[in-house]
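Practice problem: predict the structure.
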Amino acid sequence: MARIYYDTDANLELIQQKRIAIIGYGAQGRAHALNIRDSGCDLVIGLPEGSKSRAKVAADGLRVLTPAQAAEQADVIMILIPDELHRQVFERDIRPGLAAGKMLMTAHGFSIHYSQIVPPADVDVAMIAPKSPGNMVRRMFEEGAGVPGLIAVHQDASGEAHAVALAYGRAIGCTRAGVLETTFKEETETDLFGEQAVLCGGVTALIQAGFETLVAAGYQPESAYFECMHEMKLIVDLLYQGGMELMRDTISNTAEYGDYVTGPRLITSQVKEEMGQILKEIQNGTFATRWILENQAGQPGFRAMRRAAAEHPIEQVGKELRAMMPWLQPAKKQEEAKK
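Answer:
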């Protein structure tokens, strides 16, 4: 059985005695920062001089420095920027400010596990990874609860890396729900596999294939969208709340029967074999190498795939239908912001 830690296992004073630098101020960065501040910790945010997020930091009443200044002043440095930026920011801004006894932290193991970051031997390296989007990390904390998280220690130079990381987990509220012991290897490989084979790659490909099948058979694209895309949230919410048992207990008997007899026809042994191959490519570094090289080249393939996906008929139909649903306006605003 995996080890799970709670508030009683974490000494908050350990992190309150240190200055923490949050590098980045996206959804996770802001949530970590505000929760840490409300937990009574000394905090600074590291952002480039021209970052638009500096205005948000100021509005939240927090102190902002450059990443290099923040790293130099801090005892604990949490990197909360996209994976593809870790190496550049670490080498340019963070490494010069590292000293013996400091702690380097991430919320995902990619850059450490695939050696994009190779920290000096005299610093602690640990991970606290909330299993929730940043807005949920903040909202649950404000409500007096928390979201589950993962903890891992890659390098324990001080002998206190685990205790300090766990204290950090308590400061952002994760130990209220429970923090699961893992490793950088396990978190990275399972996270990438889950995203690619199920949560993102698997789900979006299945939705798109279902949509295309119905439209090719002569059904209205709008009907196909509702059945294959729109109603996905209803099912996912049930799975999230109570697993497959609640989902199957809530849907009709007809739908449940179709679940049992049709699902295995789609997810065949051949599909599982392909999943195994995907996992091997994650484990042996093939996927990581492709993504690293893609970024070194300026992301040409990635951007082309993004454009092609945005032009798919399901996206065009979806925009028209979502405009009919005023309760989805926040999602619409996010789409506009992304553009």
